[in-house]
Predict the structure of Adenine deaminase.
Amino acid sequence: MPLPKAELHLHIEGTLEPELAFELAARNGVTLPYASVDELRAAQAFEDLQSFLDLYYACMAVLRTERDFEDLADAYLRRAAAQGVRHAEIFFDPQAHLARGVEMGTVVEGLGRALAASEENHGVSTRLIMCFLRDESAGSAMETLELARPYLDRITGIGLDSAEVGHPPVKFREVYEAAAALGLRRVAHAGEEGPASYVTEALDVLGVERVDHGLRCMEDPALVERLVRERIPLTLCPLSNVRLRAVDVLEDHPLPAMMEAGLLCTVNSDDPAYFGGYAGDNFDAVRDRLGLDEDRLRELARNSFLASFLEDDEERRARYLAEVEAYEFPRR
Ligand SMILES: [Zn+2]
């Protein structure tokens, strides 16, 4: 049995495995620019951000109907459960679908059906977080929030993702204020490829409660001290950082130093179909290649539940935390 954990940084569009991509392409009469599952898998050995994004958007074209989104989320939840995920807070990118003529309702209803059945089918509780594409305009983000209004009973919070450099958090001040007024929780990607100052800005201007990635906070000791003092969680994605070259090799990852500094770190998978692994694979990787011992792995699992948006269900959080403490690591 794998270590129980929560996944807090997961883009549902990034869980589309080649087999499902071809199945949905056939169902919807969409032609993928790859001849076979193997050819698509080979393309996933991309070397840089642009080739990743080209592939990512090409594959997304197969997602057309509610059922497609339901199947996508259900496939992710099954995989996640097998790797010990007990709770998942799932990002989706409505603008990427709206731009293709797929409506907000199609996306949210489809994802929502898989999430609603997740506890019964997979034993995984869920939350849904709507992300804005930061390379789109602030006005587009505001329009997206408006389109989401009829579905806010199924959306826990908002996030900010895609190309970071040149798109500082302050650009989205108004939409974050509007979301806060609607009672939505707030997170944002910051300090992945962008500077440590974007992390500070996300906290001060956007009021985020959790920082996605945030690894470049290590360049600013005063910021580290603040993140420790205020217990701000960071959702790190080690395998993603290697694939997108935030670090050259996993052995260079700052995770051990970040934990040593007292930061509230979590380990997540980001876009697992593209970055070489799901949550459990990321845990295995940091154990094997960063030498994290059982105490540190248990700390990461504990942190993942502490950082979860489970304030509306503290009983559940307590149950998950008890599972973490009771967990016995297998003899290796
Ligand atoms: Zn991400």
